[in-house]
Amino acid sequence: MKITVTSFGYLHGEPPAAHLTMDLRHHFRDPHVDPSLRALTAEDRAVRRAVLRTPGIRPLLAATVAQALAYAAGPSAAQHSLRIAVGCAGGRHRAGTAALVLARRLRRRGHDVTLVHRDLARPVVERPRQEQP
Questions:
Q1: Cβ distance 103 to 7 under 8 Å?
Q2: How far apart (Å, rounded) are the C-alpha atoms in residues 69 and 78?
Q3: Where are the domains of the chain?
Q4: How far is CA 120 from the centre of its chain?
Q5: Could you tell me if 58 and 68 are in contact, meaning their C-beta atoms sit under 8 angstroms apart?
Q6: At 114, phi and psi to the nearest 5?
Q7: CA quadruple 70, 13, 10, 117: dihedral sign
Q8: Which among 23, 14, 43 is positioned nearest to 84, based on CA atoms?
Q9: Can you give the pLDDT at residue 94?
Q10: Of 121, 83, 127, 118, which is closest to residue 13 (Cα–Cα)?
Q11: 3 forms bridges with which residues in the sheet?
Q12: 71-130 pLDDT per residue, tens
């Protein structure tokens, strides 16, 4: 099955159309609050490490892979594609990292995956500092 995984930032517009949408804004620590990570993106190892060390993110990624595999097991999966959207506030840290991991895991399972980072290259969105758990 052909799968498209799109990362995006809610602060840059509406979420893309998708069968599955992961909203990472409120339940997972935002690397944006760390000044040393703010200007970086999911393409940087330090950001990926910070995101993947956040409690709960790995089980969520595993559950999302399981959902995608369930769609792929459907009787008409060969005739349809699956769209997964992964969003956070700016689309540069959490969403980008989660999308990269999802794409990699689904490719390992034999799926044709297109990875799109809608907002990864956009400038950092300045916003009020938020306390993180």
A1: no
A2: 12
A3: 2-117
A4: 11
A5: no
A6: -105, 130
A7: positive
A8: 23
A9: 96
A10: 118
A11: 82, 113
A12: 999 988 888 999 999 999 999 999 999 999 999 999 999 999 999 999 999 988 876 655
